[in-house]
Fold:
Amino acid sequence: MRSRRQLQVLALATAVVVLAFLIVLPHQYGSTNTTRWAQALYIGVAAMGLNLLTGYNGQVSIGHGAFFGLGAYTSALLVNQHGWQFLPTLLVAGPLCFLVGVAVGFPALRVKGLYLALVTLGLAVLFPDLTKHYVHVTGGTNLVAMTGSELAPPAWVPTSVSAIGRDDQWAYYVTLAIAIGLFLAAMFIIRSRFGRALIAVRDHEAAAATVGINTSFVKVSAFAISALYAGLAGSCSVLVDHLANADKVQTFQISIEFLVAVVIGGTATVVGPLVGGWLVVFLQHWISDSLPKHVGSISVLKRTLANPAASPAIFGIILILFVFVLPDGLVGGVRRLVSRIGRGDVNDIQPSTTPLTT
Amino acid sequence: MSLLEVRDLIAGYGPVRVLHGVTFNVDEGEVVVILGANGAGKTTTLRALSGMIPAKGVVAFAGHSIVGWQTDRIATAGVGHVPQGRGTLSDLTVHDNLLLGAYSRRDRAQINADIERWYAIFPRLGERRMQAAGSMSGGEQQMLAIARALMSRPRLVLLDEPSLGLAPIVTQELFRTLGDLNREDGVSMLVVEQNAGLALGIAKRGYVLEVGRIVVSGSADELAHNDDVRRAYLGI
Ligand SMILES: Nc1ncnc2c1ncn2[C@@H]1O[C@H](COP(=O)(O)OP(=O)(O)O)[C@@H](O)[C@H]1O
Ligand SMILES: [Mg+2]
Structure:
């Protein structure tokens, strides 16, 4: 058990270093980079929620962009149409998405696997239509654009956080605080009795019921919690990007990005989706912004990369490689590496000589 | 009054009826065995009792009609179930499997004491407590399934062919432990089996199920000496 204690210390030390880095980050980087990190954080938050549903509970959703959009719209409209401050909108967007999650979770009980994926896809297709029909804001488009002053930090915020003239910094810190809070909540959920029930229902639903787990309650709760995460992520995106966009392409694409973040970060690890969110955002920026500079004067490559289809294609290839090289995600891969170096791994299977029973 | 009273139980899958009116009972503290060939409806009977499939007829447990109840409610009311195939929660550790067995209990200290007791009864589980349950052998998983079902401290536990797929020596030890548990804890057991010899050894009474109907019933002794039973289930 000693190596286990060492791993815990190592994990804690890593957490402290990462946290310190995240806190000083806006002071080291310019606005562009700070915004990019904030985007990585909100994608990571939604992915954390999706991981509770898909990774831990086994319900695949490719429609969580709809909850993200709902959260974003709620915050954007409350600020833009009703003159609210941003922060209180979280108290509406979060619970609203939770309730819609419950409403979607019930019919989801009737379907599994690919069929569930299809139903949730329907959600992503339906949501943009609903916003178009029921929200008449900007002349029929699904876009709510905002100005920086609408989203300015309240007066009580110290300038070291709000940094006058740099609202990206305020947006970043709000998103970071929400990400940390929801990360701790996810840790708590996974280690609780409810967390074990989530996994039990995924592993063997019938057996889970025989120990007294109300499997319907667990599955609907997982849906609602993941919807809450996605919704709050959507709210943060309004603060970071100054707009709420719910067109079909955007809703669908971001749904897929959440899923990608879960898979490449590491399913069924709490920190994996945050790492995955970072990878999704920074890989795509790196491919479209930095990669063309690195190819230098090789004109064939330059012309290829200039093709608008090139970036998604390269991203796709990297994803495929990822799945083959690190099938259990980045965090899963690191974990395997650490346990191999650490030896005396708790999961080592040793032959036993004890009789089966006494 | 019996702990479990089953009368004219009818159940099946969709339009296919498998049980055509099954009647039997289990008294407090008793081990009862239901013998039956492959496909006779043994698993279906236990699934119907646990509320996993819809059923009609009378099922009274401790005086309450439990027909139509959800599986988790029946479990919480005091019916443990060791399902066919063991129902191992593969990705969870042995320890977490046992903790989940106590899902309906809130007495933390007592739960931990119970887990330690199971590690003493099945030392192999103790050695593997932090191992993923799915990586264990069939016999070890069967022990885990039994320990997990008993972690809820049920009044009645349903055991679906505990000997299936296990080496004879492992099965023998398993049945001896089941007999001990029945004597020491007084937990009632309903065992369905094809392996009549061992099951009758620990049972007080038994029934024979054939294509969804009870065709023979009697004391364990009577069944062990019944010519039909001997031919069909004891291979004599
Ligand atoms: N899930 C199912 N769907 C449809 N038919 C089933 C199902 N499970 C079992 N059956 C049928 O019910 C009958 C009894 O099966 P079962 O109760 O599993 O028998 P046993 O446990 O005695 O071997 C068999 O004819 C079997 O084919
Ligand atoms: Mg069977």
Residues B 13, 16, 18, 36, 38-44 surround adenosine-5'-diphosphate (ligand 1) (CB under 6 Å). Chain B touches chain A through 45 residues (CB under 8 Å).
